[in-house]
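Exercise 3.2. Students should predict the tertiary structure of the chain below and write it as structure tokens, then compare their answer with the key that follows.

Predict this chain's 3D structure.
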Amino acid sequence: MAAPALTSRAGSVNSLGSSPTATPGSINNNRLPCCPALDFRSGARIEELNRLIQEFSKHDQREYDDQRALEIHTAKDFIFSMLGMVQKLDQKLPVANEYLLLSGGVRDGVVDMDLDELGVYNRGSDFDMAFTLLVPALKLHDRNQPVTLDMRHSALGHSWLSLRLFDEGTITRWRDCCTLADHLSGTTNYFFSPTLVADWFQDAVELVLAEVQRKPQRGTPRVVRVERHGTLLSMILGVGSSRMLYDIVPVVSFKGWPAVAQSWLMENHFWDGKITEEEVISGFYLLPTCSSSGQRENEWRLSFARSEVQLKKCIAPGLMQSYQACRSIIVKSLGHPTAVSPYHLRSIMLWACDRLPPSYLAQDDFAAHFLLGLIDDLQHCLVNKTCPNYFIPQCNMLEDLCDEAAMFHARKLAPARADPLEHLRSAIEQAKAANRLTQDVQRRGSPSGLPSPRADAASVDQHQPDDRLAKKLQQLVTENPGKSISVFINPDDVSRPHFRIDDKFF
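Answer key:
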């Protein structure tokens, strides 16, 4: 990767600054003329790379008008109302639940889930916006509540969850979603099963959706598509001219911090002094996904998505833009499905934030260096089959990747590193094409045959609070591009959702 260009050399006898006869355009016979900064590997001009990254960001991160913001809000309310109905089916979900709504789908690397069993959805042709929603099946936020993370049978970064020490009511509610084993004491040990929980959750959602569709109401989003992908449920909603993809994942939610990641807190990090440690370690999750050698019916994966939302606030804008562009390049280069996901790139970016000086990362015109460095780092990880988890460094996320697959992916990345300009232009064209497809749908009208929430003039007065909320949403989205939304809702009163974009509540 090219280093930032130096404009002068202090103390040089050929420096123009000390010559009374030198002019800005003159060339000393003993020096090369001033050349544009270049990438050593590809010969690409750094200035042109910076320009293309800015152009990609312009097309990839679109601003929402009031109508689009209201459509997003309408879809969100539908999802939360649906989850409230799921809770009332058999009272399994917590009565007052706390969801984490993240911008971007699972396929974008928002959470660490395996992509090999997910279907391929494309922005523009299938959806316009994507979100990931983590829905706690168990919410273990009481410090007096007994919790047993059983890591004896799991790969590092994974765990089984025993319900043996839970109260009888919890065991009774979830008995049919547990696998059983005999405990040393002679009692039965109930292990919370990610596959059985996901099966229950997906069946419950389908029952609720069937009931909702039997009694359709005007203005209700239409469910365009619902598909199961292992333990993940993907749903596309149509509201007005918008299509929103929700990847919904049943999880286990914890307050506090796991012991396996305790040593990470002892190190120095880029976020020190910018946010408090309490914000970073406020909680973690278990995702319903296992290691390559684990038992699918018992093993969960530790996730620090809540912490990543906080850390994201401390990442320099130029680096974040480069990360988004690089993610698009590697997805196109590696294709789907792949053993290397955008979540690996996210971890590489976080490690780079710890490794590099903040003054360097804060440079707005270094985006090209960041992009090239991310590709270099990813190739290095593949060649060495080493990509440590940011929160559990002793956990190598590429440990199970075979040598042949690692080299295959590294070779597929090589053309992008050899000609980053061409691959950036291709990513820009792809983003433009997705936007054109979205605009075509908008011109043709609602893909679901439903009017926009603004279309029914008779209901405008009833929706004035939503309209104000839509304007507030538009303001927050504009001021906080790319940030995630955390949601709290009481299913007994779905008319009053409370949510935040990072640290901003309303």
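Discussion points: The first strand starts at residue 97 and ends at 103. Confidence is low (pLDDT under 50) at residues 1-29, 446-469, 489-497, 502-506.
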